[in-house]
Amino acid sequence: MTETTTTKRPVLSVENLTTSFKTRDGWKAVIRNISLHVDAGETVAIVGESGSGKSVTALSTMRLLPAGRSRTEGRILLDGRDLLAASEAEMRKVRGGSIGMIFQEPMTSLNPVFTIGNQIAEALVLHRGLSWSEAETETVRLMERVRIPAAKARLHEYPHKFSGGMRQRVMIAMALACRPKLLIADEPTTALDVTIQAEILHLLRELQREENMGVLFITHDMGVVAEIADRTVVMFRGDMIETGKTDEIFATPKAIYTKSLLASIPRLGTMGAAAAPKRFPEVDASTGIAVDGREMNPVALSVEPILKVDNLAVRFDLPNGRVHAVEDVSFDLRPGETLSLVGESGCGKSTTGRAIIRLLNPSAGSIVIGGQDVTKAGTRELRTMRRTSQMIFQDPFASLNPRITVGSAIAEPILAHGLMGRKDAKARVSELLEQVGLSAAMADRHPHEFSGGQRQRISIARALALDPKFIVADEAVSALDVSVKAQVSNLLLDLQEKRGLAYLFISHDMAVVERMSHRVAVMFLGEIVEIGPRAAIFDNPQHAYTQRLISAVPIPDPSRRGQTPPPLSEEIKSPVRPFDYVVPKRTYREVSPGHFVQDAH
Amino acid sequence: MTTMASLSMPFASGLRRLFGNRAMLFGAIILVIVVAAALLAPWVAPYAPNKLSIINKLKPPSITNFFGTDEFGRDIFSRAIFAGRISLLVSLGVVFISTVLGVILGVAAGFFRRLDAPISRLLDAMMSFPDILLAIALVAALGPSLTTVILALGITYAPRLARIVRGSTLVLRELPYIEAAVAMGLPTWQILARHVLLNLASPILVQATFVFASAMLAEASLSFLGVGVSTDMPTWGTMLASGREYMNNAPWLMVFPGLAIVFSVLSLQLLGDGLRDLVDPRLAKES
Amino acid sequence: MARIAQALLKRLGGMAIVLALVVTVVFIIVRVTPGDPAAVMLGSDATPADIAQLREKMGLDAPLLMQYGQFVLGILQGDLGQSIFLNQPVTTALAARAEPTFFLTLFSILIAVGIALPVGILSAVKRGTIFDQIVVTLTMVAASVPSFWLGLILIQVFAVGQGWFPASGYGGPETPFFERLHHLVLPAVALGVVNSALITRFTRAAMLDVLGDDYVRTARAKGAGEGRVILKHALKNAMIPIITVIGLSVAMLVAGAVVTETVFGLPGVGNLVVSAVLRRDYPVIQGALLVVAAIYVLINFIVDMLYILVDPRVRL
Fold first, then answer.
1. What residue intervals traverse the membrane (chain C) (predicted)?
2. In the 3-class helix/strand/coil scheme, how is chain C assigned residue by residue?
3. Any chain C CB within 8 A of the CB of B143?
């Protein structure tokens, strides 16, 4: 937004900023010689992977790092005044006064034992000298300004009654209470669902325009950068790698790191004419050059499904009502096919997966695996069933027992089911480790000796140990860094082709889903609102929610900026209903062969 | 990265951290001395614990009697060493009983949803009794003896361990690797043994250290009150109880056995604290 | 207010269940005695006739379930049985000895909390400084000292040595109230100091935990001064676990009081229990256990209620 740049002197100018932390081995620099500036009305993004030092840069600027254990050198000029030379009392006026800040975790950033109103008003009382009662009127105004519905009524509520998106709005209201010249936003949308993220970004842009304030935006997401930043600073392991206008960085990245970063991010709309899934591009880290992956095999439609789910429902009772976590969900899955379940947190996609694996008991409906009804299977039948179906989990750090060697973990199911003797099992473990791209010699190591991506490969090897027919992959690649994400996804695709595996791929990441799936089912509030072939869902979405979900995904291309959906500013409805609630029967229409959309209700 | 190197050698880094934590090292050294003295009592103690010498009664500490002598002229230093045997034996027995009971109850309550409410309520009820009072009542009911003191204190401290184990099990149960074990069709006993108990070992060890310390204090209290082990069996508590009568004229009778308790308990607390920091890095910031 | 009333009812229900279990546990404890309790109580000189008489008096001849029924019925009517040796109702015996125990517990909890809260908070705020290290060391040592031993030393120094306080006893009803309380100074200090160690360590840990939380960073980013950050934002959150540990330490104080009363010759409930154990006066042991546990359950209930006031997230 260059048209709003009115002043010459930058609001914030950081010169040669170096921050060190005290460690056992003495002072260690975590960021080195960072220089950047933010003009009024301008958004500057700092982008980098975990460990790049981008958050430390933000906290150093606010002087929020612990005094004894950290040291900051260089200059931080706010309107020409050096903050590193300011006294602590002066800094208190700056924090929340001239610089507002919002953080990544809206769920933990608000104090749970004080009301929302109290926490916003505190900033006004501290900086503008208002009395608490005067501050209340202003607080309501601020809450309305960040589009919190029924602001007056919610003033006296506690944070735990607010959703993540609403809490982030409260944080923004608090940060903007004293009309700061600069807003520092540290990954403000990372913990939020994609549609909520779009709303928050929209709100931030609007408020920035109204206030002509500078924004320093820290993120790991290139899509978000393309969406909002005028200029971008790329960081890697504490160093500034590249800086420049966002358009230029995206169009002609200079540093190899930036090139490979841009090449490895999954993007929407790169499937071309492919009908089946496509491997992710392979990026050469030394040159940053990417080669697009090949298309995988299509699925034979004539084969009998390995999994049939009919009218599945999972409900939990709470003291104040019943959660309809999953309601009337039906689909089938053929050998060699990937069906993705997509939707935002709380939509019931994980619950569906866990019910199919029978980690939860379904409340209604039926699950048929390989022609056998396992909905009500007892302990003995379950044991047999567990050889056909397996699950891979999201968190690579909690998926493996830290006290058992990975070889032993992979051999465990083989031995428990009595499929082989110890000796054969050992050979099988070596084979499996090699199949997932690790070496057989790693079998004797413990999980903590592996990286996140390697652990996820081990989890896959363990899931394959029983030679299952289908695998439920619950956000299996979501926690991985961008480049690793592509590699593990490619592994899953290769294994599928080789073994004819079927995947139920549960994910919130639309760009990954587009690459991985044959078919896609969109879930909202426990129900499937749309299901069909991948191309049909992404290129021709019919349900209003599917359209919102797809258009909310930030596109890593600054030239397509601003195509996000209009803000909704409503709390997502909750799946908690009164006990006497009768589930209405939903109807679907077939738009094209195999593409079903739930009728409006 | 440096952390990767240290992580790949858990034992070596554990040792390094043990020596890095001076408080814990201090605790470990005291405990080793106390345990060694107790084990080697007949060789370490300069006199037999019950050797009477009326001429030498109530002598203050000296070169011949480091801690002085009691009303029968018995050497306090030797008696304190032998008393350590009983005190340690009782505490060890208590730790064993309470750990076995606590782990069974805690894992059952934490892992099996149906058992949680009844077991938890029972633990609530048991923990409503102040520890010494419950132990006294149990000893009174069972009749005082070494075994009953161990049994009574073991029952008294079992709920504490059970609470901790239950809490940890509840957290573990939700972890993906336990769910993966269920999804792989492992039998329940195998999930409990290999995945739950193996990962509970550290919190149990830490808590057992604290129970050890509490048991030592409680045993001393019981003996001091005369409701614990028989008074002719020297423990630090019984030594304090019998020394009390003479404390105006011969304060060493109560000072040294008391210090023996303080140092032993302190060593266990230091050790427990250090272990907890090693096991749970999140809590390490406490010290 | 409706929220609190509703929560109150729910917690009362839970409390009733625990109390019922407490009654049952007490009943069982006294009946696990190997052999005949009546014979044990009367000692080896007793004639079979004496034993039979006592058995009847204690209702030991009835079937176990009947005994349990009578036990519960008695409790509901406020009857905890009859002390054989004191020859008076257990409730009377307990009531007569409640005062010193009550004040001893009260004073020691005041001393413990009075030391622990400020020291613990300061130690957390000044974490890593010499002050903090001294606090950590002292609390560690204090938690290792048996309170009765500290009592013995205090008697040596301040009663026998300096003569500032009486070494033992409490004085009868005719003694002026403040003089009676004067007797409680040393025992309360002995108990309070030892227990303050636990609460101090806990307060420090809770504060450190809270000071690392995201909302504390938010408060700082808002420009709040350290005083406000610590006393408003951190402390109210830290109080949630601290309240629990204070509630818990009341039970520990009662346990400590049993021994401390013996050391200082205070005629309190602890003293009564110890002599009852030595005489195998089962009804008294049973009654004292029951009353003390009931008080503990009540304190827990109060702690639960305090939670609701402090923590708006408590599920009701």
1. 12-32, 102-122, 134-161, 181-199, 238-264, 284-310
2. CHHHHHHHHHHHHHHHHHHHHHHHHHHHHHHCCCCCHHHHHHCCCCCHHHHHHHHHHHCCCCCHHHHHHHHHHHHHCCCCCEECCCCEEHHHHHHHCHHHHHHHHHHHHHHHHHHHHHHHHHHHHCCCCHHHHHHHHHHHHHCCCCHHHHHHHHHHHHHHHCCCCCCCCCCCCCCCHHHHHHCCHHHHHHHHHHHHHHHHHHHHHHHHHHHCCHHHHHHHHCCCCHHHHHHHHHHHHHHHHHHHHHHHHHHHHHHHHHHHHHHHCCCCHHHHHHHHHHHCCHHHHHHHHHHHHHHHHHHHHHHHHHHHHHCCCCCC
3. yes
